Amino acid sequence: MIKNFDPEKYVDLPQIPGDETKRQYYFIEQCKKRVVELTETLGHAPTCCVTTFGCQMNARDSEKLVGILKQIGYEIIEDENADFVIYNTCTVRDNANQKVYGRLGVLNGYKKKNPHMKIALCGCMMQEQTVIEKLQKSYRFVDLIFGTHNIFKFAELLYRTYDSKEMLIDIWKDTDQIVEDLPVERKYSFKSGINIMFGCNNFCSYCIVPYVRGRERSREPKEIIREIEQLVADGVVEIMLLGQNVNSYGKNLENPMSFAQLLEEIEKIDGLERIRFMTSHPKDLSEELIQVMKRSKKICRHLHLPLQSGSDRILKAMNRRYTKEQYIALANHIRQEIPDIAITTDIIVGFPGETPEDVEETMDVIRKVQYDNAFTFIYSKRTGTPAAAMENQVPEEIVKEGFDKVLKLVQETAQKRVSRYQGQVMSALVEEVNESEAGMVTGRLSNNTLVHFPGGDELVGKIVNVSLDECHGFYYIGRQV
Fold it and tell me: Is 261 left (phi over 0), alpha (psi -120 to 50) or beta?
């Protein structure tokens, strides 16, 4: 735990509520008063830019930050030359850290010209002790640093920075607290992500997430249901259930509930049209879940099932806890039970000790499973993970050769899979007006494939039937019917 923040040092404030949610709303009100003062000083409402790095859980966290900032009175802009800049960081790869350091140099230049500017850093990168030490030594102009476990205390921490001349740090090693009933500013009015759990217990040898997000902890189902009901009442038709491994949801609850059972409860919500979720670990995907998906009218026909490698030897070194044959059998069974499902995956090429023969094993899985799409990555040595200390790091030129072969095969097989829908009529949720072609909108099918077709902004947020006329690799051109 790294902190120089004492939450009890509020001698100028009246009694602070004990309940955590009420406490944070109390500090939102206190911050509002400070923003009124700041507006008078600046001659305009203070501006804020929130930049998100990383995964969908980070994107959801940023929506929470923006929701609080808007309620306090900040004007949200995209220009980093703002009165307040927040970087919500990712640390999955070392180069993500380097990107943040580089951009901080630019912010320092802005801050020298704007004495009222504040800079805050949060997210996974901040959970690393070496990062905090580097920031304390070389980036003293940063005003506020907090991590992944105490994002709900943002209003309280922000209030403290208004009078502080020093870098304020509040990093928690772990927590069992879950506080969700705070303002959120959604990016889309018609769809939303929902955190159903936090943390990860899997400790894949290449992954830093368990060290920065902590151990698994699930939200109470009644709280999840209530939040979704509120979102549906506010116009949301599609929700994405978020967790590092949703298949292990509910195991640590006082009254355990499986992920499949949670889905069945969510499906009962009137007005909710679509349910998505990610990510699923193959070792925890149950027959119960497959059957719930098979029966469901609302769960989307898309499953993201990360493979990472097709080599048993590499899978063991990765600590994935399944074999190649087990994975293939699972994928085949899912396809047998739910023939119209789209399966996507993650693949890493170049893990320590990987040989060309191991890459061939991965390609064999691609041929047998026939993915609808795959996110293919070159292994990135991540300091702080067991894999980073492994011998036999693969030379860059060999990794590149294997990566190119895997990527080519993925593209060939995936395009063939996607093309099988041509000529069909399917429902699409219209997500946006197409920026690159006038008079067109972009919709997403239940299986996660995109389709572009003629339409206007009045269609955004609506689910419409679309004829899939022309397949262009990973997307379609169609028409509303």
Answer: alpha
DSSP string over 443-480: EEETTS-EEEEE--GGGTT-EEEEEEEEEETTEEEEEE
User: Burial, 116: exposed, middle or buried (Cβ in 10 Å; 0-12, 13-18, 19+)?
Assistant: exposed
Q: Could you tell me which of 66, 30, 24 has the C-alpha nearest to residue 47?
A: 66
- Joined tokens for residue 100: 């943040």
The pLDDT score that the predictor gives to residue 13 is: 63
Q: Residue 214: what pLDDT?
A: 86
Give me the pLDDT at residue 11, please. 45
Kindly give the pairing relationship between strand 450-454 and strand 440-445.
antiparallel
Positions in the chain short of pLDDT 50: 10-11
pLDDT digits (tens, 9 = 90+) for 423-473: 999 999 999 998 888 899 999 999 999 999 999 999 999 999 999 999 998
pLDDT of residue 212: 85
Helix (H, G, I), strand (E, B) or coil at 304: strand
Q: Which residue reads 């004495």 in tokens?
A: 115
Taking CA atoms, 141 is separated from 108, 109, 118, 400, in Å, by 7, 10, 9, 39
**At residue 347, what is the residue type?**
I
Contact between residue 48 and residue 76 where contact means Cβ atoms under 8 Å apart: yes
> Closest Cα partner for 247 from 322, 187, 174?
322
- Residue 3: per-residue pLDDT: 58
Reduced to 3 states (helix: H, G, I; strand: E, B; else coil), residue 393 is coil
State the pLDDT at residue 74: 97
Residue with tokens 């927590």: 175
pLDDT for position 465: 98
Task: Return the C-alpha torsion angle 221, 226, 227, 229, nearest 10.
Answer: 120
Q: Quote the CA–CA distance of 214 and 212 in Å, as a whole number.
A: 6
**Contact criterion met (CB below 8 Å) for 167 and 9:** no
